[in-house]
Structures are given as C-alpha cells and as structure tokens.
User: Fold this.
Amino acid sequence: DAGITQSPRHKVTETGTPVTLRCHQTENHRYMYWYRQDPGHGLRLIHYSYGVKDTDKGEVSDGYSVSRSKTEDFLLTLESATSSQTSVYFCAISQPGQGAQNIQYFGAGTRLSVL
Amino acid sequence: KNEVEQSPQNLTAQEGEFITINCSYSVGISALHWLQQHPGGGIVSLFMLSSGKKKHGRLIATINIQEKHSSLHITASHPRDSAVYICAVGAGNQFYFGTGTSLTVIP
Assistant:
C-alpha cells in the first residue's frame, strides 16, 4: 500500500467553524490531490498540487483552500464550514514526472459531517 | 456536464457470470483508469491504459481511443468482486471520474 495517511478519519463539526484536513505521504510523490465524494456524483477534484507551494483549483474549489509547505503534507481547509460540505474527502497522490498519466494512490478517506 | 459516463449504475450477478461495465468519455485523455472501491470505502487502482487491452487475473480492461470507450470485464465473477467500479480519465493535470458502477455478486 502507498504510504498515504489522512487525518482525521472522521469529524463532526458545526456550521461556521474552520476545519483542516491533513494528507501525509511517505512516497515523495510530486502530485497531490483533494477530492470529495458525494452520492450521485463521481469523485470531484477540489484542489491539487504539483509541487511545494504550487497548487491549482479544481472543479469544486469554492469554500476550500489548500497549502503545501512540504512535499509530504497537503492540507485542505474549510474556512467556514457549511452543511453542503458534508462529504467524504479523499486525498490522492501520483508518481512524479508524468502528471495525469500516472496511477493515483488514494488515502482511506475522511468522513466530515457539518451540522 | 459529465466528462465520464458509466453504465450500468447498478449490477447484480450470480456467482460465475461474466460481467461487463462500460465507460464513455468526452475529453481528450492521456490515459484511462479503472478503480475499485470496497464497501469499507478504500479505493484502489486496477488498471491504467491508453490503448488496447490489459489483463490481470480475472479482470480484463479494453479501450477504444477512436470511439472514446472502455470496458471492464470480470470473468467467473465471485462474491468478493462486489464493490463499486469507477472509471476515471486523465486529462492534463486533472482526473475526471465516472459516478461508478455498484456490483453485487450473489453466491
């Protein structure tokens, strides 16, 4: 298994509170991704990173920010959580050098409930 | 607008049956991926292909670039194959995912 750890695995929070999810990898992969998975939708890209301090928005980036200060860590922050952000969040990494052609390895997911 | 469409959404099969899951996509891709999501939620990559056909055990994946279509076949299906199968395409630095096919194999 690829060394990807998501934390926390489960979180319940209240509307309006800030929330930070962490993705930690031990594989030294260049690309890191944050997705959300909701019923009736495929995995949808929130933000991705192609290197330290290099990030870009995905399809559903509104209400989310990210930071990557080290190769191994990619943080996803909900500045002010809303009920529509209740979801399962997955982090993924891919091998360096070939971008989207490469196999993605997924973390175990974080189940977030915003009440 | 969905860049990736899968069919069927749900599939129930008897153990031993041959299973086919289809994926069509509308964007230019560098590669297509088949993923498996277990009932516990974990996602693993089964195949990555950009042309032709790949086989791994009882799983076979094919892709037709001209028709923008891929199929995942499972031969001699088994209850442990029960999972959600997800088609994803890589385009540029991003991936686009289908909504998945939920497969249940009954003993």
